[in-house]
Design brief:
Elements (H helix, E strand, L loop, with lengths): L2 H10 E2 L4 E2 L24 H4 L2 H8 L5 E5 L5 H15 L6 E5 L2 H14 L8 E4 H12 L10 E3 L1 H14 L12 H13 L4 H8 L7 H17 L2 E3 H14 L1 H10 L2 E4 L7 H10 L6 E5 L14 H4 L1 H4 L4 E5 L7 H13 L5
Parallel strand pairs: 3-9, 3-10, 4-5, 4-8, 6-7, 8-9
Antiparallel strand pairs: 1-2
Length: 349
């Protein structure tokens, strides 16, 4: 047992003068340390989960794409992974869970707390919009707003647009002009899909193409009015968070350090801005897991794009893909029919 010690000592001594060399041992990165031995876990993850779910739950570091169709235990997998990270020794405040609805985040964290303990309820969880609101309440001054900004709901936003439409005298009967609802939809689509307004007009409102310049004037007035009165609509929350992360390296690094493990549910329903936010938050560590169904995307009218989930492995070249394919909800004949429809590309009504 003593031979290794003396071998090391002889190696450290420098030649005949016996001067000791100085070596600096670099610690392993925190993210690569398993802080708790698996045998000490209180939850029997291996027996509670099927092999694919277990692989997804215990795949901790680096980017992961979890393909999970309906009925494959997607929510269960996310809940167990929250508990696994906490039980592994990751501080709850270093975990970020982004979901499509606030209720979904609350339910997942509540279930994780029942599974493990109340530490899981301390995980940062919520929608992209609520997360953006929380961050902008601290850093809005860096993008030209005060931190006590007021949020406009859709009805309020449409009323502001209508006010500006009237001020610019585009409400006269002599000139057919888009109503406030159409203008709001147009501006929202352009922002969320990162698409020039003239393309949105050509595709969705071709009958208003000749009014493009006037429509842009109303939009410019709307943007200026919000800035002047310290207002943000729902779309601004995402756009402004993206601006904050893109333009402020120090804030980006701070947030990436704070949220060391990021999970995103229903990733197929995210838009381009949300995908960029996720990528910027994970910039320092790439510890990101997105969960979704590449055969289901129902919110394209809100700017979501299936390309986010399809292109995820390209954005993160060392991405690990796990497929949850065991269905707990449907019988095999139904699954066979659904798979055949998808294979043939037949329209589903």
């Amino acid at each position: 047992m003593f031979l290794p010690f003396f071998s090391i000592l002889a190696y450290l001594l420098n030649g005949d003068n016996h001067k000791m060399k100085k070596f600096t041992l670099k610690p392993l990165p925190h993210d690569n340390l398993h802080l708790v031995h698996p045998q000490r876990f209180t939850i029997d993850y291996k027996n509670d989960l099927n092999p694919a779910q277990y692989e997804a739950v215990t795949s901790v570091n680096g980017p992961h794409l979890i393909i999970a169709g309906a009925g494959t235990g997607k929510t269960r997998t996310v809940v167990y992974r929250v508990a696994y990270l906490v039980e592994l020794g990751v501080k709850p405040e270093h975990i970020l869970l982004l979901t499509f609805t606030r209720k979904a985040a609350q339910d997942m964290l509540r279930r994780a707390a029942l599974l493990l303990d109340t530490r899981c309820e301390q995980v940062a969880g919520g929608t992209f919009h609520s997360f953006a609101n929380n961050i902008l309440r601290k850093y809005a001054t860096l993008i030209g707003f005060e931190t006590n900004f007021t949020i406009l709901d859709q009805g309020d936003a449409e009323d502001v647009i209508n006010l500006l439409r009237m001020r610019l005298k585009y409400d006269t009967k002599e000139k057919r002009f888009p109503r406030k609802e159409a203008l709001y939809d147009l501006y929202s689509r352009s922002l969320n899909t990162v698409t020039p307004m003239n393309q949105i007009l050509a595709y969705d409102y071709p009958h208003y193409l000749e009014l493009e310049e006037d429509i842009k004037k109303v939009h410019a007035a709307y943007v200026s009015y919000k800035k002047q009165h310290n207002l943000m609509d729902y779309d601004d929350l995402l756009f402004n968070l993206g601006e904050l992360l893109r333009k402020n390296e120090a804030i980006r690094a701070t947030l990436s350090d704070r949220y060391k493990y990021i999970m995103v549910d229903e990733y197929q329903d995210t838009n381009k801005i949300q995908a960029e936010i996720v990528k910027l938050l994970a910039l320092k560590h790439d510890n990101i897991m997105v969960v979704g169904d590449d055969a289901q995307s129902i919110y394209s009218f809100r700017g979501s794009t299936i390309k986010n989930i399809l292109d995820f492995p390209k954005e993160f070249s060392n991405c690990k893909i796990v497929k949850l394919e065991e269905n707990f909800r449907s019988t095999q004949p139904i699954l066979n029919l659904a798979n055949e429809i998808l294979k043939r590309g037949a329209p589903v009504k």
